[in-house]
Structure prediction request, 664 residues.
Amino acid sequence: MKDVFIFSGTTEGRSLARYLASRGVPVHVSVATEYGADVMESDGDIDVRVGSCGGTEGIANLISEKGYGIVVDATHPYATRISKHIREACGCTGARYVRVRRDDSSMACDDDLIEVGSLEEAMDYLSNKDGRVFATTGSNDINLYTRLDGYRERVVARVLSTVSSVERCAAFGFSGPNLICGQGPFSEESTYAALKDCGAKYMVTKDSGDIGGFNDKVRAARRAGVTTIVVKKPEDPGIQYSEAVSLLEELLGLEHVEPTAVPIERRIVTLIGIGVGRDCMTVRASDAVARADVLIGARRMLESVEVRGRPTLEEYRSSEVVSFLDSNPEYGSAVILMSGDVGFYSGAKKLLQALDRSRYDVRVECGISSLVYLASKMETSWQDAHLVSAHGREANLVGLSRMHRKLFTLLSGEESVYSMCREFIEYGMDVRVTVGQDLGYPTEKLVSGTPGEILEERFGDLCVAIIENPDADRRNPISIPDEEFVRGDAPMTKSEVRALSVAKLKLDDDSVVYDVGAGTGSVSVEIALCAVNGKVYAIEREDVAADLIEVNKLKFKVPNLEVVRGLAPEAMADLPKPTHAFIGGSAGNLKDIIRCLLDKNPDVRIVINSVTLETLAETTEAISELGLIEEEIVNLNVSKARKLGKYHLMTAQNPIYIAVVRGR
Prediction:
């Protein structure tokens, strides 16, 4: 197999050397400096040579002496002199010459860049301008900046941190505060910080391509308000990296292996909340959009920004967005546009989890949320508002408005507004509603009034609302006095027993609970008041009792309570998975009810109340037979005082046994 001699100094050269070495090809690399050798990360499979080869004659002698059959020129696109020497040497020795060309930057033709044919032209342009200059064109041509008047104070040069670079810059008066040394490629953030720190008005750079960090420099300059002057890249007759890989595989008799793209440093992906319309986007968000190579988002999001002929993807699903990014490495900077603010009921959460941080430099720019915008239009605060979304999801707006003086909710279109107001009227909610339509857009509209007044208005497709209830009740809802319930002849779990039973359930605010044998619904109501973002299913076989539950549901304003008429466990068959269950009456079907609960959720937590010893015996038998975990069984004896003249006598209620069990 022929040895391959690579003149490197670029990402393409390093990548090509490592790839060929991994395929067993003898690879020899020439780099100009020790820095080049360090970033080459040579090992036993790659022979690295540092220093000049001595022009055409020196290169030809080296090729002949070592017997290199293939010579790859992967030098910097602006290193035209060394490329000429390599090409001439190959012509003299008969070695196969392969030139790897770097692709033009995707930003190289942007209208806001000033393109010049040479660094000399850049100096001519700057000689008639005022303002500090940030030079990023390297140390080899640093002498040209001495043409500018007052260059020692006016020009700040950034070069690689090698001894030769520093010494050359110092020889022409660049040192101390007007010299920055570092190891490239430089990130957008580091360039931005340098531009701001030195107060630059102009930046001079070469088109080193997307891989060489050109886009990062341009984006940094735009953020800093700096004019970018680009020295046009010389004509390059070479072939692209992927073509070079294919050609070398053919010349060396290697089987073609995918992929052949140049490994690029981590690409930038910015998640942006567009806020409530283009005019309300933050400056940072607008700058990120302007710098993007590709824009991704739902149609409305894309219509809210200036595309300027750039590629777009109309997509919002996390898996599809990530798949697109993974399959299109040519986009060095992608922007994903999200509605409103990225931290408020946004798809940003899933995207942030899905993006591979080893491949992507992920950034997030917030937006002005509809909550903040609407509150400002109403001239009210929003820190005291409870936040919820009823946009494409179920939300207990009645229950939350009962508890909170101020409630903000995302809605959908007109029908979601009407549905909310009709429910407020049904449950007798005395609230004031302010609806914001198309906030930030020309069709913006704000309407305030009672739910009935809001129903008389027409609305568009994008609505939000603030509901105000000055009589909100935030008291702990457990142990409602018995006399407040509409009772009839149906059995009812008394206040003290109800309080302890509900407490033993250990509910979350979004629990899904079955109340089996619900009676008047007193337990169902208290559970629904506690699990305001959850759901309660009151299962009752007696129609008279079920009718009473419906009455109490309206009275206590708990739309998250649903009455299920029928005998358990058959009536439970089509209900969703429960997190908790309260069994107050089982009609002799206790074991079957528990089996049904366990089938739906083996982790379900159950509280069982027994009034008779027979039911208690059935409970303990079920615990043993079904393998339940018994947390505790409590015997509760309640006596309440009643007045008899000037005396108080204690009247005992029936003792209750409360069993607390769980599946596992």
